[in-house]
Amino acid sequence: MAKSYVQLQESEGHLLAAASRLYSAYLTTSQYTGDNEADLMRKAIKETLQIAHAIDAAVIADTEID
Q: How far apart are the first and last CA of the chain?
């Protein structure tokens, strides 16, 4: 397998951490059929982004205050 290089921004790293936790949880449930890893990964990413957008809409960060 060829090596690849990935450099994530800080916020992307946080999203990766959240999505990977959701993904690993899906793999331990009956939603996992043995051949749907890619679907569950996409679902975890989509739901992570939905959570992030909901938080962004509900919370004013320190840097957003004038």
A: 49
